Amino acid sequence: MKKLTAFILRLLGWKAMSGVAPESKCIILGAPHTSALDFVISWLYYTSVGGKAYVMVKKEFFFWPVGYIVRWMGGIPVDRTRGANVLKQVVDEFKTRDYLHLAIAPEGTRKPTARWKGGFHTMARLADVPVYLGYFDWGKKEIGFNEKFELTDDLNADLKRVRQWYKDKGVQGKHPELFNTGNDLD
């Protein structure tokens, strides 16, 4: 599978800029998330470098035969119904697995958003796992992740630093008009 996905990635014009995260458990942020194709490109990339990344997917997608494919591609079912605690579900996944590289879109949506989600921050701190800043740059067709991002106790300051990193990196989404690193970064 590794060689096949590497071939497909190259055929599509993409270049892998890094390998697999060194820890057995971590969170890898994925931005800019402006298209459903981001998942496909990310899956091809991480599989091509020998990794297995997981993503949270609402449990309603786990019906036959789609559920089998979603799970095979790294989908972890989460209950997002009223009263369900997604944060606890994810932290429990980290506690019960020996290996979990969880990919999360900090924007929380493919639409432009002024405020990025901080759930990854809370998850990482509660599960005691590192965070990496992953990117898929549709302009340069480069995909990879940066070194470990050190979290502090200040969620808002960390979100500001994360957004600034993506802004400085100059990554471009498939739909650039949908990616907002925030003009409010003062």
Hey, roughly how much beta strand do the residues contain? 15-25%
Mean pLDDT: 90
**What is the approximate shape?**
globular
The helix count comes to: 6
| Beta strands, count | 7
Low-confidence stretches: none
Distance between the termini: 45 Å
How would you describe this protein?
This protein has 186 residues and is an alpha/beta fold. Helices cover 34% and strands 21% of the residues. The chain has helices at 2-11, 37-48, 66-72, 86-96, 119-127, 155-169, and strands spanning 15-16, 25-31, 53-58, 75-78, 100-104, 131-137, 142-149. It has a seven-stranded mixed beta sheet, sandwiched between helices. The longest helix has 15 residues, at 155-169. Pfam families: Acyltransferase.
Q: Could you give a quick summary of the protein structure above?
A:
It contains 6 helices and 7 strands, in the order αββαβαβαβαββα. It has one domain.
Looking at this protein, list some descriptive labels.
alpha/beta; 34% helix
